[in-house]
Amino acid sequence: MMVDAPSQTSTAPPPPGPLGSAPEPAALQAYLGGLDAWVRGRRTELDDLDASALAAGRGAEVGSDMALALSLWKAVSDRYAEMWATWDGGRVFDAQRQQVTALVWAKLDGVGVSVPEACRLSDALASQLRTKLSLTPGADAAAGRIKDLRAQLERIRDQVGLEPALGRDATVDRLAAQMARLEEIAERARRGADVGGLLPPLEQDAAIFERDLIVGNQKRRDARGLLQEVRRERAALEAREAELATLVATCVATVQPAPRYAVPDVEALGPLPDTLEAITAYRERLGRVGQAMAHLQQAYAAALAEHTDLVALLDGYVAKARATGAAAHPDVVAAERQARDVLARRPAPMTLARQLVTTYQTWVDAQGDQP
Fold it and tell me: Which among 197, 217, 247, 292 would be 20 to 30 A from 338, CA to CA?
């Protein structure tokens, strides 16, 4: 079943400026006007594509792509509404103009890419949907599609330049192959041949290629940001490891028995990885190391605190003995001396120290009851 082709929308306007800039009001007004036209036109195009798919009985076939395209459109449309509210009819100062560019480059909710990237991805998806549904028959339409493919492959060329040097050769070869296919199709079209059957596969391959590059670039940016966070977390754990080693040494030298936990070795986790999935897993291991350090710190600090508390408790009983007149009694004096001698040992036997402090308390109470 052949259906009429929906008209293609104009491309989204270029960003008004980099993140943190405050473009002139005229530039912002032009950008917002162009983005408004893109939002309206893309929604009309998607509605036409959806109607065409349903008319052809192919709604289920393109359902997932259509859902993604609508999600991208909705995210851009909502962000445009925020920009328009911030623009406030042009009554803006530097702060508001910077806020507009921040909204342009901030990640969109639900899709995780900026407005320019979402527009390019939406263009690629719309092109892929048109190709799947074969909605543009005819020689004149073929010329327009060839022109669109040239523009798309130029965008892809720019994206390929952003790929990491390691592995870039594969994307360069993939682009070269698609450009060669396009030139062959264009030459056949110039000779008057019917290229209607050759364009859809290339359009679909180019759309998938562009989408893959955009998603891959976004993942690399996410990985770089996450890597910085994980590097800071690891540095904090390394500093904490040194502090815990000092705490453990102090505790072992002060009390006996002391807890028996080994300080986690952050170095044993190995070097930081360089892929998003590996960095995420590495961060989880850092979290487990941090939990182990927290448990260790609590145990050793509690052991040291008990020694400090026993000394303070003994001092309190001594004050009580002086107040009741029991401090000079020979048994009370001897009990205090024994308790302090044991608490002063390094390491101090805590079981005996507890007993001697309790014994001193008993002597103080007993002598305080005497008339």
Answer: 247
Note if the bond before 15 is cis, omega within 30 degrees.
no
Dihedral angle sign, alpha carbons of residues 50, 131, 42, 98: positive
Q: What is the DSSP letter of 369?
A: T
Please give the model's pTM, rounded to 2 decimal places: 0.47
| Residue 310: closest CA among 274, 279, 282, 340 | 340
- In a structure prediction context, what are the per-residue pLDDT tens digits for the chain, which is 371 residues long? 333 444 455 678 999 989 889 899 999 999 999 999 999 999 999 998 888 777 667 788 888 999 999 999 999 999 999 999 999 888 888 899 999 999 999 999 888 899 999 999 998 888 888 777 655 445 556 777 888 899 999 999 998 888 887 778 889 999 999 999 999 988 887 776 778 788 999 999 999 999 988 888 887 787 778 888 889 999 999 999 999 999 999 999 999 999 999 999 999 999 988 777 888 899 899 999 999 999 999 999 999 999 999 999 999 999 999 998 898 999 999 999 999 999 999 999 999 999 999 999 999 988 876 65
Owner of token pair 């002598």: 367
CA-to-CA distance for 75 and 103, rounded, in angstroms?
Answer: 12
**Cα distance between residue 20 and residue 121, in whole Å:** 24
Q: How buried is residue 28: exposed, middle or buried, by Cβ count under 10 Å (0-12/13-18/19+)? A: buried
